[in-house]
Every structure is written in C-alpha cells, then in structure tokens.
Design brief:
With 281 residues, the protein is an alpha+beta fold. Helix content is 46%, strand content 25%. The protein is built from nine helices and eleven strands. It has a five-stranded antiparallel β-sheet. Strands 7-9-10-11 form a four-stranded mixed β-sheet. Strands 6-8 form a two-stranded antiparallel ribbon. Helix 6 packs antiparallel against helix 9. The two termini are 58 Å apart. The C terminus is likely disordered.
Length: 281
C-alpha cells in the first residue's frame, strides 16, 4: 500500500516508496505537497465533512480517485484516520486494474444476457417464419401473379436471415471457420444455387484471377448466399440475371467500407437488377 502522513495543516510530511511509484512523483516532490493536490474536485468539496469525521475519531474507508503527477487518476481503496497528535495517516491501494476487470466482467455478463435473450427470440421467430413461408409458397403456386404473396414470401426470407444472425449473437450457433477457396466453394454449389434461383433466373458466376483464400464458416457462408439468392428470386419474379462475383480488392485509408481495416480483402458481391429497384448486396 501507498502510505501518506500529513501534518495538522494537511501537508505531506512522510510518504513511502510505493506512494511515489504509483503517483509518479519523487519523494522530494511529494513532501510538502498539500493532500488536496492529490484529490478530485468532488473530494475537495467534501473535505470539511471528512475532517469532521476524522476529528471525531472515525476511520474513513472509501474508494476514491487519486490524482497522479501527470494529471490522470487512479482508483484507490483509501483508509484514513487522525492520530492522537493531530497528524493524518492514510493508506491507498491502487485498484484501477481491478475496477477495469470488474467493468469488463459486468459488460460480459450483460452481453451474455442479451445473447441468451436474442437466441431465445430467434428460435421462436424462426419457427413462426417457417410456417408463414411454407403457406406463402403453397399460395404462390396457386396464385403466381399475386404481388402481395410475393411480398410476403420475400419478407419471410428476409426474416429467416435475421433469425440466423440472432442465433449467432445468442451463441446458439456453433461457428466452425476454416480456410476455403471461394472459386471451388461456388463451383461446387453452382447446381444447388441454380435450383434455388429457379428456372426464370439466370445465374452468372464471375470468378476473379488468383482470388486469395478466406477463413470463414462454410455452412454460414452457404446460408448467407442462399438467402440472398432467394431474395433475388423474389425480386425477379418475371425472370432476370443474378450475378455472383468474387475478386481481390485493396482498401486504402481513403477507400474502404465504413470502419473496415485497410489492406487486402476478398470481395463476394451478389447483385440483381430486381423488378422493383436496383439491388446490390
């Protein structure tokens, strides 16, 4: 612990080596400094109350910010009492790291609770959407020109994608990333994707030259692509061309997406003209 002794005027007359270490002062710099120089504004304002308690023989035990030489604060467990001759004896234990870890633990618990909540909702949501989607598909067969049914089916497909993401957030989805070649990945699934797209949609694969391998969960990537292909099928009820393109891209500080990192990346682009609007996903 850092040990401080102050006279009846509040000026430091003795400190130990650890006090110098945690606050960044030399012993000569601390000796003669007023105790208020190490306190926060809030604690200075409360000083009369603290002094009243100390003079009454009480020992103050509290967690308080303590000012360092550079102006920053540490969090300290403070113990202070008045000696019989009027001097003040205080010890401070630096608990800054402990407080930081406690905060991180609280955040982790909150995130875990949110994840469990999201995962529980996602399961119920996915079951509800499955019923809606199944009945909508049956109605589309009987009423293929009904635009409202196409909208319902499209919304159900979008919801299924959202439910999948919520399951991942809720840690109910076991992710198994591995290094894959996107060229081979798409080529192996071309027939399946063409079947998902339907007879009215032409599937075009544009594979880049020497596209680098990526580290992803193949199952999750397949679900994502299938969801987007289903979106395109709904968007292009009258037929059209669906393009899936992969390539290497280089992001510089002035050319990147959002807060993404700079450097080399692999792009996977899925686009269609759509019946209602241009869409690029």
């Amino acid at each position: 612990d850092a040990i401080f002794v102050a006279d009846d005027a509040g000026r430091l007359i003795e400190v130990n080596e650890h006090a110098c270490q945690i606050l960044g002062y030399t012993r000569a710099e601390l000796i003669g400094k007023h105790a208020m120089d190490l306190m926060s504004i809030g604690d200075v304002a409360q000083l009369p109350l603290h002094m009243e308690a100390l003079q009454a023989g009480e020992t103050i035990l509290a967690e308080r910010p303590v000012r360092k030489k550079d102006g920053t604060f540490i969090v300290g467990d403070l113990s202070a009492k008045m000696l019989e001759d009027g001097r003040l004896l205080a010890s401070i234990r630096d608990v800054t790291e402990r407080k930081k870890l406690q905060g991180e633990l609280r955040d982790a618990h909150r995130l875990e609770a949110v994840g469990r909540f999201a995962g529980g909702i996602a399961v119920d949501f996915a079951e509800l959407l499955e019923v809606i989607e199944r009945h909508a598909e049956e109605l589309v067969v009987r009423l293929p020109a009904d635009k409202d049914l196409v909208e319902i089916l499209g919304a159900a497909v979008s919801g299924r994608s959202l439910a999948s993401q919520l399951l991942a957030i809720g840690s109910k989805q076991e992710l198994k990333p591995e290094t894959i070649d996107l060229d081979e990945f798409l080529a192996e699934r071309r027939a399946m994707l063409e079947s998902v797209a339907g007879d009215q949609v032409k599937l075009v694969l544009r594979q880049g030259d020497g596209v680098e391998h990526v580290n992803v969960d193949p199952e999750q990537l397949e679900k994502l692509i299938v969801d987007l292909v289903l979106h395109s099928r709904v968007d292009m009820a009258g037929g059209g061309t669906l393009t899936i393109e992969i390539d290497n891209v280089e992001f510089t500080p002035d050319r990147r997406i959002g807060h993404g990192s700079t450097g080399r990346h692999v792009m996977l682009a899925i686009s269609d003209p759509g019946d209602r609007r241009n869409a690029s996903r």
